From TrEMBL:
One of its GO terms (cellular component) is SAGA complex. InterPro entries: SGF29, SGF29_tudor-like_dom, Tudor_SGF29_rpt1. It holds the Pfam family SGF29_Tudor. Residues 145-226 form the SGF29 C-terminal domain. CDD domains: Tudor_SGF29_rpt1. This is SGF29 C-terminal domain-containing protein. The lineage of its organism: Eukaryota, Metazoa, Ecdysozoa, Arthropoda, Crustacea.
Length: 226
């Protein structure tokens, strides 16, 4: 469920667009499936040498149609994923604003971990075109050296503990100072309730998109990656 400060007019408008896109998907997907079936049926018939000459021209036409239908479905999915990402970003920005105004969320650690797990599973899936390389912050692909994380982005932050030891924590970006080259981040563990001012070298920006195991296995984190 969205809280009152998460559902703004901008996010509601995007949610309406997203709903329309989702309602269009079944019809577009069905057309694509019909095209795939038509291609397969013609390919089966084309195994008969006597029919190849007759079917060859029709197979080319049907394959082109199937390709066009697949592109339409992909484009619709890309638009839907884009709207989901925009809604998430608006929600993050509003949450940061609420926190800065003193409206701090308090939750049990187990609830926080469940939310983090859900967030990791629902970040946008990157769907590149054939031969396209996954972009920075997709799966295991690191951010560019000059990348500046936005408010609401999740990061791993290296902070000093009470005994001068250093530990990695999961934090949320509040802001970045261009003049100082430093981030202000907030420890997401509400039991700590701490803000930290850290240089860029102490920040590792976490992925903003998931990579597809089938299409881009090279962008997946290896088991045991720390």
């Amino acid at each position: 469920m969205f809280s009152s400060y998460e559902m703004t007019e901008n996010s509601i408008d995007r949610l309406k667009v997203l709903t329309k896109l989702i309602h269009q998907l079944p019809e577009v997907h069905a057309k694509a499936e019909d095209s795939y079936s038509a291609v397969e049926q013609l390919r089966e018939k084309a195994t008969d040498d006597r029919k190849q000459a007759v079917i060859k021209g029709k197979l080319k036409s049907v394959t082109l149609q199937a390709s066009n239908e697949a592109e339409k479905e992909q484009e619709l999915l890309r638009k839907a994923l884009s709207k989901i990402y925009e809604i998430r970003q608006i929600r993050n920005e509003k949450r940061i604003q609420a926190r800065q105004q003193g409206n701090k969320e308090t939750m049990r650690r187990i609830t926080l971990m469940k939310m983090l797990h859900q967030s990791a599973q629902t970040i946008p899936l990157w769907l590149g075109k054939e031969g396209e390389t996954p972009p920075p912050l997709c799966g295991s692909v690191s951010a560019d050296s000059n990348y500046i994380a936005k408010a609401g982005d999740m990061v791993a932050a290296l902070v000093k503990g009470p005994e001068a030891d250093e530990n990695w924590i999961l934090a949320e970006v509040v802001s970045f100072s261009q003049s100082q080259g430093r981030y202000e981040v907030f420890d997401i563990d509400e039991e700590q309730k701490e803000k930290h001012i850290l240089s860029k070298r102490r920040i590792v920006v976490l992925p903003l998109m998931r990579a597809s195991p089938e299409i881009n296995p090279e962008a997946l984190f290896s088991k045991g990656t720390s």
